[in-house]
Amino acid sequence: MHLYTVKILSQLKSIIMKATRLNQLTKGVFLSILMTLLVFSFTSSAQKIPFLTSTITPAAQGYVKVKQDSNKNYVVKIHISDLAEIERMQPTKKTYVAWMVTDRDVTKNIGRVSISKNLTGYLETLSSFKPIKIFITAEVDESVPYPGEQVVLTTDTFYNESSE
Q1: 156: which residues sit within 8 A by CB, 6+ positions away?
Q2: Which residues pair with 133 in a beta bridge?
Q3: pLDDT band at 39, cuts 50/70/90?
Q4: Is the Cβ–Cβ distance between 122 and 114 less than 8 Å?
Q5: Is 10's pLDDT higher than 90?
Q6: CB atoms within 10 A of CB 119
Q7: Quick count: other Cβ atoms within 10 Å of Cβ 22?
Q8: Which of 9, 64, 65, 159 is 20 to 30 A off residue 26, Cα-Cα?
Q9: What's the pLDDT tens digit per position in 49-86?
């Protein structure tokens, strides 16, 4: 009986050693994955730029996220909350339009901001031009080539030579 107990203890010790090695291997793999994700998150994280407080719609707030994709294009995501109903704007307007000022000092219409019933707005677009400022205007038509005078929200300039 004593020999049988020693044999069981020996097998148990072997199993524990294998589990310990497996546990160390698992820890190593887990740490490697964690470090990769951490490095990836720093290199591919989007820059989050807040909109400044608006004098036209003071309750409106939001932010812009800009990220460069693998094709060297810029992904621009705009999130806005507490917008005024567009029909209440004076003079009357029909839509909110997002504009981008590029690093070449060109202002481009990047699209209509979709507004939900709870007055939140969203737009996601792609540009080959590097944005340095984003602003939102109230317009009568979403396809206007130049921004109108009613700037609802704007960011500060967020890319400069030192941020590259």
Answers
A1: 49, 52, 133
A2: 101
A3: very low
A4: yes
A5: no
A6: 16
A7: 10
A8: 9
A9: 999 999 989 999 999 999 999 999 999 999 999 999 99
Q: Under 8 Å CB-to-CB from 64, ≥6 apart: which residues? A: 48, 49, 51, 76, 77, 78, 79, 134, 155
DSSP assigned state of 46: P
The CATH code for residues 47-163 is 2.60.40
On the 0-12 / 13-18 / 19+ scale of CB atoms within 10 A, 139 is buried
Model confidence pLDDT, tens digit, residues 80-116: 999 999 988 888 899 999 999 999 999 999 999 999 9
CA-to-CA dists, residue 59 to 18, 81, 119, angstroms: 62, 8, 11
